[in-house]
TrEMBL record:
Subcellular location: Golgi apparatus; Membrane
InterPro entries listed in its UniProt record: EMP70
The protein, known as: Transmembrane 9 superfamily member
Main location as per UniProt: Golgi
Keyword Transmembrane helix included in the entry's annotation: yes
GO CC entries: Golgi apparatus; membrane
Length: 549
């Protein structure tokens, strides 16, 4: 602490420089070509490379402002005219804050920033004395250290350390890493989403309320029952609208997992928005999400059990087991297969086997019993009160128009929720795949609220059109159609892969698409559940408002 070093040599055994074999040289050249970064940590702070960009607001050269940005980690090397150069000298700049202490106490220093300036310096230009200290050459006269991938390379690894006092306090030392330069884009995206959603809400509310009032007034007129009978519309399917769908157990299980996800996402984003999940505690967000998903099993089980009872289901134990294992089983399976590939590469990014076992124990020891508990109480509770009775004989469904096709419904319903959140999605993708920090949970919370509102509205509109076309099979269809924005997330993920990322190898591509599959599946469950419950409430409301003979 607090001792500067001009230039120190590493790995300098018996006065000989380090040697890279042909194989090592080839690997390093390949990694430089693939833009590899190196990450170091000092006192729990990740290293950052300072980038000074000139903002061209003023034409006058002297008045140009410097925009300082920080890049996470530093580049392994660089390429110039198809030659590879390695960063073999690191100049560390450590900023410290001098704490106020009483007179007779020892000085207390806190590291508040960790920067690096990587340099490439040729072996011949470095002068070394007997003690292992070195002298750096003048930057103008020295050449960079080239790595020739066809032969052995001799080189030296050196570093220097400089300490600088700073008035940044310990509490705000992460601000450098978390300051986002494009907050305006976020505000623009949110205002854009809010305007779209309000515009849609206004139109929907006007159309639906006016149409419904007209429908209900017509249906409730006692005197012209004969005329009404000849009409078509949603009242005609009143005897079939609450007819249980095919596979009620799977539907209720998926919706139970959707409720679990919804509660988890809501709490995680809210807690992170309050600043309780700092990136300085690594993995806190993921750990919190896992634990919350396990504990939210009670609510997932309760909603799934109650819905299963409403859909005339009887085998509640099997239903509870299905709810506890269907979605988590798919997630665990995909993660395990991907992890096997990472293990095969001997990567440090692999999840250790004991952690996998611990997750399995949590799943079967915490989540499964809680889902059973919730399911038991949900199944015992009074089923949802449907306002109309179901007929014995199912009504014939007329031939549907082309635009009532399920896939077209998914495409139409997905555009709006996706449009409301795709800018935020870009930042989340950048955070996951391009090594950025994502810390704008306030924005994310707003976007999540907008997403919930837009999914609910679009789902109500789609189910209204479907019932007007006298098609009463809305249970599964609403769940699938409301999750339509997940299809657009998948398309966007493919677009992002092709345009933004330079991934050429098999395993990184497999990882990208494996994790994307998990994201898309979870997003579909989440949005599908939101849409389903909105549509279900809407249907119960409208059928309760008409008089049925």
């Amino acid at each position: 602490m607090h001792s500067d070093k001009k230039c120190e040599v590493l790995c300098y055994k018996s006065g000989k420089p380090s040697s890279l074999s042909v194989q090592q040289s080839k690997l390093i050249a390949e990694r430089i070509r693939e833009d590899y970064y190196i990450h170091l940590i000092a006192d729990n702070l990740p290293v950052a490379t300072r980038l000074e960009l000139y903002s061209s607001r003023d034409d006058d050269e002297k008045k140009k402002e410097k925009d300082v940005h920080f890049e996470h980690g530093y580049r392994l090397g660089f390429m110039d005219n198809n030659r590879f150069y390695l960063h073999n000298h690191l100049s560390f700049l450590l900023h410290y804050h001098h704490e106020d202490v009483e007179e007779n106490q020892e000085d207390v220093y806190r590291v508040v920033r960790f920067e690096v300036i990587p340099q490439s310096i040729r072996l011949e230009d470095l002068k070394i004395d007997e003690k292992g200290a070195c002298t750096l050459p003048d930057p103008a006269s020295s050449a960079p250290q080239e790595i020739d991938s066809t032969r052995e390379n001799q080189l030296l690894f050196t570093y220097s350390v400089q300490w600088q006092e700073s008035n940044i306090k310990w509490a705000s030392r992460w601000d450098t890493y978390l300051t986002m330069s494009d907050v305006q884009i976020h505000w623009f995206s949110i205002i854009n989403s809010v305007v779209v959603v309000f515009f849609l809400s206004g139109i929907l509310s006007m159309i639906i309320i006016r149409t419904l009032r007209k429908d209900i007034a017509n249906y409730n007129k006692e005197d012209d029952i004969e005329d009404t009978m000849e009409e078509s519309g949603w009242k005609l399917v009143h005897g079939d609208v609450f007819r249980p769908p095919q596979y009620p157990m799977i539907l209720s299980s998926l919706l139970g997992s959707g409720i679990q996800l919804f509660c988890m996402v809501l709490i995680v984003i809210f807690v992170a928005m309050l600043g309780m999940l700092s990136p300085s505690s690594r993995g806190a967000l993921m750990t919190t999400a896992c634990f919350l998903f396990m504990f939210m099993g009670v609510f997932g089980g309760f909603f799934a059990g109650r819905l299963y009872r409403t859909l005339k289901g009887h085998r509640w134990r099997k239903g509870a087991f299905c709810t506890a294992t269907l979605y988590p089983g798919v997630v665990f399976g995909i993660c395990f297969i991907l992890n096997c590939f990472i293990w095969g590469k001997h990567s440090s990014g692999a999840v250790p086997f004991p952690t996998m076992v611990a997750l399995l124990c949590m799943w079967f020891g915490i989540s499964l019993p809680l889902v059973y508990l919730g399911y038991y109480f949900g199944f015992r509770k009074q089923p949802y009160d449907n306002p109309v009775r179901t007929n014995q004989i199912p009504r014939q469904i007329p031939e549907q128009r082309w635009y009532m096709n399920r896939f077209i419904g998914i495409l139409m319903a997905g555009i709006l929720p996706f449009g409301a959140m795709f800018i935020e999605l870009f930042f989340i993708f950048s955070a996951i795949w391009e090594n950025q920090f994502y810390y704008l949970f306030g924005f994310l919370f707003l976007v999540f609220i907008i997403l919930v509102v837009s999914c609910s509205q679009i789902s109500i509109v789609m189910v209204y059109f479907q019932l007007c076309a006298e098609d009463y099979r809305w249970w599964w269809r609403t769940f699938l159609v409301s999750g339509g924005s997940a299809f657009y997330v998948l398309i966007y993920a493919i677009f992002y892969f092709v345009n933004k990322l330079d991934i050429v190898e098999f395993i990184p591509s497999l990882l990208y698409f494996g994790y994307t599959t998990l994201m898309v599946l979870s997003f579909w469950l989440l949005t599908g559940t939101i849409g389903f419950y909105a549509a279900y409430m809407f249907i119960r409301k409208i059928y309760a408002a008409v008089k049925i003979d």
